[in-house]
Write a structure and sequence with these properties.
Layout: H1 16-25, H2 33-40, E1 48-54, E2 59-65, E3 67-69, E4 87-89, H3 97-123, E5 129-131, H4 140-150, E6 153-156, H5 163-174, H6 180-188, E7 193-195
Parallel strand pairs: 5-6
Antiparallel strand pairs: 1-2, 3-4, 6-7
Helix pairs in contact: 1-3, 2-3, 3-4
Length: 198
């Protein structure tokens, strides 16, 4: 068959789930995703001080709290800096494990924002809705923070671990067993929950 070529833009952030596993296995400050949620919701932010700075053009807010950069294997999309390493900074005597967990979730969201910004720039189309899958979707504050940072709607499919489902759907689509609408509209996203940004 003669069909048009379709391109996909993808951003690679390998340390999202790995960062949570490191909090569990490397630092021992969480036991499971439920505890990540519990700790992250105990604090309003990653702890620190807020400064309101007025410049000649406009005022802006500067927040100096715990900063987590989960660059365990370098920074990937959109920076591609393999020699960068992870860091936790901004700790004070008032910092708790809840602040570190919250900073970790925020870091994953910020990496996603940078990747989405690059995709939007390359495609010349803004992202209005982001479909989010994977184990972190079990953490509702992660989904809400992601929607807030991206300033877009987030959809969480009923099937959260959808990599295998996506591979099966693509194979079935190529074999003509079903069409795209059957898979996406009626299947994967039929019972999706949504997070609107605040």
């Amino acid at each position: 068959k003669s069909q048009s070529v379709v391109y996909a833009l993808e951003g690679y952030i390998p340390t999202a789930g790995a960062a949570i596993r490191w909090l569990r296995d490397g630092l021992g400050i969480v036991n499971d995703l439920e505890e990540v949620e519990e700790l992250a919701t105990k604090v309003d932010d990653s702890g620190g001080l807020r400064f309101f700075i007025v410049t000649l053009t406009e005022p802006y807010e500067l927040f100096l709290g715990v900063c987590f950069v989960p660059a365990f294997s370098g920074l990937h999309a959109p920076y591609w800096k393999a020699d960068t390493r992870g860091v936790i900074a901004g700790l004070t005597q008032h910092s708790t494990k809840a602040h570190i967990v919250r900073a970790c979730l925020e870091a994953i969201c910020l990496q996603t924002r940078d990747t989405i910004a690059a995709i939007s720039q390359d495609s010349e189309k803004p992202v209005a809705t982001l479909v989010v899958t994977g184990g972190l979707c079990a953490i509702s504050i992660f989904a809400q923070t992601l929607a807030d940072i991206l300033q877009c709607k987030g959809l969480l499919p009923s099937m959260r671990e959808s990599s295998a489902l996506g591979a099966a759907a693509a194979a079935g689509f190529c074999l003509g067993l079903w069409n795209f609408e059957d898979i996406v509209v009626d299947g994967l996203f039929s019972r999706a929950s949504a997070y609107d940004y605040l």
